[in-house]
Fold this sequence. Notes:
The protein has helices at residues 22-35, 48-56, 102-105, 118-129, 143-151, 166-169, 199-211, and strands spanning 11-18, 39-46, 62-66, 74-88, 110-113, 136-140, 156-160, 174-175, 183-192.
Amino acid sequence: VLEGMKGLRRGQLRVSVASTANHFATRLLADFSRQFPEVAITLDVTNRETLLKQLDSNETDVVIMGEPPSDMDLEAEPFMENPLVAIASPEHPLCGEESIPLARLAKERFVLREQGSGTRGAIARFFEQHGQTLRTGMEMSANEAIKQAVEAGLGLGIVSLHTLELELEAKRIAVLRAEGFPILRDWYMVHRRGKRSTPVTQAFHDYVLAEAARHVRLPSGYSASGG
Ligand code: PGA
């Protein structure tokens, strides 16, 4: 598919991605840009709430986000799994446990993303669906900050597996084996319904569908199904 697009003329591509998707989106765009050096790319990294505003006001060509809302006129295509895992400092007493009941996990305090984050919304829904109350500790607007806070023992965290790389290998952070985890979500490519595609946006769309998985490094030993 992409071979035919090699001669793609100069054009513009505005991509907006959820903060969490940035952990792979940069690699994805770098490779796309090597294949299509004539295309001027802008990348905006922001949270779910802002992405929805951008879609609404037509400020972006493509959005990469979790679970698009059903009450907006959007076209959305899932292209990759996004597992959310519970994390702790390796010294945390729950780290040795084989199967942590959700009610036990819910006794802990969590360092969470800000309101408006898709990850935050999914976590809140998960606890609610299981009849548990989420005890929120500190709020942080960046996954990197959450990982550091968890490592420092400020609380537990729930983050996308896509945000974890070296922390697990270096044993600075541990993934907990908790009931109901990982929380399975998907990444979607989204644009406004009826938005006219250009050769550039079409090429990017095809590229993401075909190549995304190749640019994603999930930590070894962790699969989406909770291995
Ligand atoms: P977030 O988005 O970075 O806003 O949490 C991710 C998502 O929607 O899963």
